[in-house]
UniProtKB/TrEMBL annotation:
Keyword annotations from UniProtKB, A to Z: Repressor, Ribonucleoprotein, Ribosomal protein, RNA-binding, rRNA-binding, Translation regulation, tRNA-binding
Pfam families hit by this protein: Ribosomal_L1
Stored SUPFAM superfamilies: Ribosomal protein L1 (SSF56808)
Cited NCBIfam families: rplA_bact (TIGR01169)
GO biological process, one term: translation
Domain of life from the UniProt record: Bacteria
Coiled coil, from the record: none
Protein name per the record: Large ribosomal subunit protein uL1
Function field: Protein L1 is also a translational repressor protein, it controls the translation of the L11 operon by binding to its mRNA. Binds directly to 23S rRNA. The L1 stalk is quite mobile in the ribosome, and is involved in E site tRNA release.
GO cellular component: cytosolic large ribosomal subunit
A GO molecular-function annotation: structural constituent of ribosome
Length: 230
């Protein structure tokens, strides 16, 4: 039998049923930190069935401390809007040329934004962008006449949250190198946005469980009192 590492031994002694505060959970995750800068992630188990339209939970939230990630943004725009998107820091801006590029499989983007007049072009990419969650959507602010602001928002720490089939939302809230105050602010922003997005069809307890983890760390259950309005 292989000898356990110090980290494995410590993990074996971890109380899996303990309910942590955010600060306690972050302190614990730092004990298991690896040599690379891990992403801190939140998982929220919700009392919804997203197969029903009135129980879908989806939205955008700006994380006040940013994500620590370089967000790649593509924008469908022409003329002045195209120049504004470039000036705002978009990684790729185009129209039919960008359509062709994406149809050829070049989809290395975290966010796709479009001005309203470009939706005739973008609509042809539904089967390409849809499965990756990249299809521009007016409700999420990714179809907008103000493409420059949408690019700035994406680059500065705005993230999308969307409930998965099993009623769970996963989202990164920064890096372990962030200080506790920065991660706590991002945690509050995300969880508050999810709570405020409670759909009309949700019955019974809405937030069932919240877990905090890092890329290589254990999943730690949080006290639901840490989630505003839970």
């Amino acid at each position: 039998m292989a000898k356990q590492t110090k980290k494995q031994k410590t993990l074996a002694n971890l109380d899996r049923e303990k309910l942590y505060t955010v600060s306690e959970a972050l302190a614990t995750l730092r004990q298991y930190a690896s040599k690379f800068d891990e992403t801190v992630e939140v998982a929220m188990n919700l009392g919804v069935d997203p197969r029903h339209a009135d129980q879908m939970v989806r939205g955008m939230v700006s994380l006040p401390s940013g994500t620590g990630k370089d967000v790649r943004v593509a924008v469908f725009a022409r003329g002045d809007n195209a120049q504004k998107a470039l000036d705002a820091g978009a990684d790729k801006v185009g129209a039919e040329d960008l359509l062709e590029d994406m149809q050829n499989g070049n989809l290395n983007y975290d966010r796709v934004i479009a001005s309203p007049d470009m939706m005739g072009v973008v609509g042809r990419l539904g089967k390409v962008l849809g499965p990756k969650g990249l299809m521009p959507n007016p409700k999420l602010g990714t179809v907008t006449p103000n493409v420059a602001q949408a690019v700035k928002d994406a680059k500065s720490g705005q993230v999308e949250f969307r409930v998965e089939k099993m009623g769970i939302i996963h989202s990164g809230i920064g890096k372990l190198s962030f200080d506790d105050a920065a991660l706590a602010a991002n945690f509050k922003a995300l969880t508050s946005a999810v709570v405020k997005s409670k759909p009309s069809g949700a019955k019974g307890k809405y937030v069932k469980k919240v877990t905090l983890t890092s890329s290589m760390g254990p999943g730690l259950k949080l006290d639901l009192a840490e989630v505003e309005g839970a």
